[in-house]
Amino acid sequence: MSNTITSLKKEGKLSEAYDRAISMLEQNKLVDKQDVWLTRAYAWVLHAQLKRLSFISNPTAYQSKLQEIFAAKIDIEEDMFWSSVAFSLRANLAVLVENNMPMALDLLVLVDFAQMSKSNGLSSVIKIVQKHFKEHKDYQSLIETIGFDKFVDEDFISYIPEGGRPIMSLVEQLIISYSKVLLAGQPDMHNPFVTHVDKEKVNTWIPIIDNLSRKSMEYPLYFKAKLLQAVGSNQAAIDCVIQFAKSNSRKFWVWTLLGDLHSNEKNLQKAYYSKAIDCGGDPKFLIGA
Question: What pTM value is reported for the model?
Answer without folding.
Answer: 0.88
